[in-house]
Amino acid sequence: MSRLPTGGSRIDRTRPLTVTVDGVELTAYAGDTLASAMLANDLDVVGAGIYTGRPRGLVGIGREEPNAWVQVLDHGGPGTGEPMVQATTQPAYDGLTVERLAGRGRLLPHTDETRYDVLHLHCEVAVVGGGEAGVAAARAAVAAGEGRVIVLDDAPTAPVVDGARCLPDTTVVGAHAHGRLVAVQRLDSADGGGARRLLQVQARRVVLATGSEERPMAFPGNDRPGVMLAGAAAAYVERYGVLPGRRAVVWTAHDGGHAAAAALAEAGVDVVAVLDVRDGDVVTGTDGGSDTGRVTAVHTTSGTVEVDLLAVSGAVTPETRLWTHAGGTTRWSDDVAGFVPDAPPQGGRFSWAGTERTAADTGGRAPAAWFCATDLTDEQAAGTYLDLHRDATLADVRHAVEAGLRSVEHVKRHTTIGTGADQGRCSGVLAAGVLAQLLGEPLGRVGATGARPPLVPVPFGLLAARNRGVLSDPVRVTPIHDRVAHAPMEDVGQWKRPYAFPSVDESLDEAVVRECRAVRTGVGMMDASTLGAIHLRGADVGVLLDMVYTNLFSTLAVGKVRYGVMCGPDGMVVDDGTTMRLSETDWLMSTTTGNAAAVLDTLEEWLLTEWPHLDVVCTSQTDHWSTVAIAGPLSRDVVAALAPDEDVSAEGFGFMTHREAVVAGMPARLARVSFSGELAFEVSVPAWYGAALWDAVAQAGAPHGITPYGTETMHVLRAEKAFPIVGQDTDGTVTPADLGLGWALSRKKTDYVGKRSHARPDAQRPDRRHLVGLAPVDGTSLIAEGSQLVAHGADLSATPVPMLGHVTSAYAAGVEGPFALALLDGGRDRIGEVLDAVDDLVGTPVRVTAPVSYDPEGARRDGA
Questions:
Q1: Could you tell me if 188 and 269 are in contact, meaning their C-beta atoms sit under 8 angstroms apart?
Q2: 438-470 b/e with 16+ CB inside 10 Å = b?
Q3: pLDDT value of position 106
């Protein structure tokens, strides 16, 4: 045992524990980490090289540890284990059972649904780090009255700051724009439960006080067990009362190494030599024992010393990964002997509270202390490890340079240095220094490699948190849902929408036929609240819409509505919808139900990356409104009853216009738009009036026999008029012209997204797939949606069968019977041809028709 009889600021000697490593029981105390328990029980080998299999010992005491990774077999119960856990950060608890790993773990069955949770926190100031600088920043924020202050610290016991909320055992794993932090909080790690909480922290201001990390130096044989960071070796004594060795050499490049040597000596370690790079002292190699490979001797420029511990410290450099996550930059500092924060992240949300040590404080001359010499033999270079976690050596960096690589990022990928689970904490700056030395360039010019979130490994189960099971895909319902919930539901994106409203003795197909007849001959009502709604405000909204839509929008008058088609840069249709102009600076865009979020994301991306000069603000309002569509020849009568003060005549309320109105006593927006092709109005009210609006429409429509209708009826009616559904009648290879929407391609505008692609010869080929209609030759056979179109009478046994197109939408309730829409090669030139629609190797003869199968003149749109 290497446990001292007294001491250890973090352990409770009155609470002994037992942990099991590879089937061997080890004694420990409450407050120990798994790593300190291993060290206390003289477990020299904590892992192995991922490729070499060489035995590896503890190097660090925290997140910088490259070797000690374990598989936790359970966290208090079956199915709760976890792979790739860092022994230096895993608290010891009674019954902890682990297996040592060689750089990679294995997934375990996960059966516990209660271990992970998520919490959203909001504050004015978030301080990351509970050290001296973090506590000072938190107290200053409280004293200044900045509001809510949160301190997030990964130590088991958080500091106490009056007026601030301090969270212990909390590791920030990502820092993002706009003051967003993602953190992992251990909830019951001391008791072995393994429960964790994912924190989503939104702060007005973030102070990063993430401290510093110790850095090693490189030399042949530096991967042996017993070679440790000097500061870590001293910390094991102070925190856990554990001796990392009995007889030691300390090799350092700064004064901190001398402090560590003094602490080790005071604890009883026989420190036989303290070597300082600044005095020309260099370690040239090590010897190891035959059993565990633990270091037995250290070779230096002054001779050979027999030891069982070599404590090394090249420098102590700031931990800047979160700073760079947020978009900040770093620069090399000779005074600090490391990379320090430089330009702050954009937006002014992040600041740095670390203290830059000066040369007088640290004696930092680390640029001369990366490795012992430049003239090492190939064999020596192959045994000089720069990244213990990835088994990468000085020889690997030499090979990269010999291959012509000069960028530190290219060398990183060539050698895999810094790509492991430890994020290159011990290796990143060391490798950059070695590269600079090999290239003969200043380290500030070579630079440091980047680091991506998460800062430390995070279980996928925690990232999912509550987003699992029934919550894996949130169910969205409209404010009208309670009024229609008795109907069979269809999933449309994340929304639940009624498919149809069958009566007790009616099938779904019969209900759709009845509902279609009601809308064609009388009046129907539908909950249309799921359509995406994006409010656009600013002086340049018209300019933006001209660019993202293929047709012209800037000329739209206030009170008018215009249909638009949106394409990607490749010219293919990505969405469509109507946009109304509410005022000179306010517009409301509607999108398809499933694409609302994607369209908003696209608008914001264009505004951020290509047109940041435009005065436009986008706000999602999908959930702000409830909309009821009233469609059919009698719809005008129903709306007149609902809004008696409004002129809803054909002359007084024209197609593609809108107005503010009072509908059934509620503030509303009336629009004369139609997705059914019939005379129709859309009535929109603030969401909290949604159910009341539905009831009012039903009451006003009762004298006219108003019929609720669902999504399938909507699809039949729109398909008869060849109104396409983006994502159903398109597949990412369809241009507006392919859909018969060539009229929407403005020839007045000099540019819009996709315009150049539309001019390409491939986009104008006459044999492109066009949207066409299909009708069964016998007038009664159903056409299967998704069927492949082939030549009539084609031999289906001879493969491959040439495919001419496919059926995108198919319905049985057309005015003249079953019909379908399809994308067909050169479709507009094939009207009248007979083809076979093949489903499950059975071909149904179909005749190609014009896409509009009912009311091609559009006369029904305005009613009588």
A1: no
A2: bbeeebeebbbbebebbbbbbbebbeebeeeee
A3: 78
Mark residue 23 as left, alpha or beta (left: phi above 0; alpha: psi -120 to 50; beta: remaining). Answer: left
On whether both 520 and 643 belong to a single domain, the answer is: yes
- Cβ neighbours of residue 616 closer than 8 Å, sequence gap 6 or more: 536, 537, 538, 540, 541, 544, 607
3-state secondary structure 680-717: EEEEEEEHHHHHHHHHHHHHHHHHHCCEECCHHHHHHH
Residue pair 758/570 in contact by the 8 Å Cβ criterion = no
- Rounded to 5°, the CA angle 619-621-626 comes to 170
Q: Are residues 189 and 323 in the same domain?
A: yes
Work out how many domains the chain is built from and give that number. Answer: 6
For residue 447, give the CATH number of its domain: 1.10.10.1100
Domain with 665, as residue range(s), is 481-529+625-717
Q: What is the DSSP letter of 337?
A: T
The β-bridge relationship of strands 97-100 and 69-72 is antiparallel
Which residue among 368, 385, 407 closes a domain?
368
**SS percent in the chain: helix, strand, coil, step 5:** 25, 30, 45
Is the domain of 325 the same as that of 362?
yes
pLDDT recorded at residue 355: 52
| Inter-residue long-range contacts of 163-167, CB under 8 Å, 24+ positions, other chains counted | 164/127, 164/138, 164/139, 165/123, 166/130, 166/138, 167/199
| Strand-pair partners of 306 | 297
Rounded to whole angstroms, the Cα distance separating 90 from 708 reads 60
Phi, psi for 251 (deg, rounded to 5): -120, 125
pLDDT score, position 119: 93
- For residue 718, give the nearest of 808, 835, 789 by alpha carbon: 808
Domain end marker among 623, 650, 665? 623
| H or E segment and range at residue 264 | helix 255-266
Q: Which residues of the chain have pLDDT under 50?
A: 356-368
**Same domain assignment for residues 67 and 138:** no
Other CB atoms within 10 A of residue 517 CB? 16
- Confidence (pTM): 0.71
Residue 227 domain-assigned (yes or no): no
DSSP 97-141: EEEE-SS---------SSSEEEEEEEEEEEEE--SHHHHHHHHHH
Residues 79 and 148 in one domain: no
d(CA 485, CA 229): 65
Kindly state whether residues 607 and 585 are assigned to the same domain: yes
* 803 inside domain: yes
Name the residue among 711, 653, 704 with its Cα closest to residue 682: 653
Cis peptide before 55 (omega within 30 of 0): no
- Which letter does DSSP use for residue 675 in this model? S
Three state DSSP letters for 186-212? ECCHHHCCCCEEEEEEEEEEEEECCCE
Buried b (16+ CB within 10 A) or exposed e, 577-598: bbbbbbeebebbbbbbbbbbee
- Residues 159, 174, single domain; the answer is yes
